[in-house]
Amino acid sequence: MADRCDVCAAPVVQVDGNCAFCHSPVSGDGDPQELLAYLAERLPSAQVRHVLFGRGAVREVSLRGKVVRYSAAMRGGRLVVEPDVALAEWVEMLLAEVSRMAVSNPDVRRGLSRSGWAFR
Ligand SMILES: [Zn+2]
């Protein structure tokens, strides 16, 4: 059963019992495919690839940071992230990057203000 955070609606990624996105208490486990779709929807500056050209389920979400390129993709039914760290850590890194981007980019800032995420 796929679980979502009650506060920010993210598929659950836990960091010590809290949501990796908004830091509210959560339980259970999110669905990786739903997590990809969630990121694609909420990250205005991300590149999104679909299973079918421009349509179908999200296959990969990537975001070019200042130094690092972040990506998450379904491969063989598993979610694979780059940089290659634990998923919770990846979300933390990604959100830190996106908060830095928001400082200079109004589009990113607008996308984030609707997300309900806790900013770094
Ligand atoms: Zn949350």
Structural summary, described in words:
By secondary structure, this protein is an alpha+beta fold. It has a domain at 31-113. 31% of the residues lie in helices and 27% in strands. It is built from 3 helices and 6 strands; from the N terminus they run ββαββββαα. The strands form 2 sheets. Strands 3-4-5-6 form a 4-stranded antiparallel β-sheet. A two-stranded antiparallel sheet has the order 1-2. The longest helix is centred in the C-terminal third of the chain and has 18 residues, at 87-104. The chain is globular. The N and C termini lie far apart (30 Å). The mean pLDDT is 90. The structure holds zinc ion (ZN).
List keywords for this structure.
120 residues, alpha+beta, 4-stranded antiparallel sheet, two-stranded antiparallel sheet, 6 strands
Short description:
With about 120 residues, the protein is of the alpha+beta class. The protein has 3 helices and 6 strands, in the order ββαββββαα.
